[in-house]
Amino acid sequence: MQRDDAFLRAWRDMPGLAGGTTDDDITRPPQHYRTLWISDLHLGTPGCQARALLDFLKHTECETLFLVGDIIDGWQLRRHWYWPQAHNDVIQKLLRKARKGTRVIFIPGNHDEFARKYLQHNFGGIDVAEEWIHETVDGRKLWIMHGDLFDGVIQCAKWLAHVGDSLYEFTLKLNRHLNSLRARMGLPYWSLSKYLKLKVKRAVSYVGDFESAVAREARRRGVQGVVCGHIHHAELRDIDGILYANDGDWVESLTALAEHADGSLEILHWAGQLPARSGLEAVAARRAVQA
What we know:
Layout: H1 2-13, H2 23-27, E1 31-38, H3 50-58, E2 60-67, H4 74-79, H5 85-99, E3 103-106, E4 122-123, E5 126-128, E6 132-135, E7 141-144, H6 152-156, H7 158-184, H8 192-199, H9 201-220, E8 225-228, E9 235-239, E10 242-246, E11 255-259, E12 265-269, H10 276-290
Parallel strand pairs: 1-2, 2-3, 3-5, 7-8, 8-10
Antiparallel strand pairs: 1-11, 4-5, 6-7, 9-10, 11-12
Helix pairs in contact: 3-5, 3-10, 7-10
């Protein structure tokens, strides 16, 4: 756990990003929202789409930003240390947002569970909390949590979750090779792991069971909705009168959840908003990792 403590100290003390205005800032001004939710960044793994995430953070502004768990992948970092500059830049950008007035709330997940030792603490302007109740501008109360407590594999057989995590990393590595080939052919980004999950009946059943369990608990708590992450499946729908929202991830889907000024919620699919050159830079970064 000494590495975890050192990392959190580095997070707290890290300086901000360098300033400067680019042509991209002029042609793509920031989009403004009341609240944004992102989760499952998995910083510290080759699968993290850090450059796309930086583009999102650069071109969005909000009053409150929720980091809904698995921001830093402690599981992977314990097995193999991987921390390129782009991942450092993401942390710096989050800290800079907090310094400039955005309220940033970090709710740890299972991959960054080490941060649960620091609940109710503040690191560089970022509050660490186990869960949160957020009230939308139209008066709805939303329960914010990561979601791993509703995952039977995590709770009952954590060793199996670690095995599954290794297999998932293998799928992502294969996915990077496939997308490198697709980029050379002029084809858009495509997620192999997302495709496999949607095709495997048991995985689809797992997602449905997870969503229903989370919605039942939200109803028991007397709130109107729930926002979570964990399963890497962006979704926004009604489940028996409870608003279920999952903000997705920044490994496969590149999605976020947004609350507009009128209180309406929307899943943002950022892959479709990336400029062409950002896509080429992401491919170049993946090739550098594979080299």
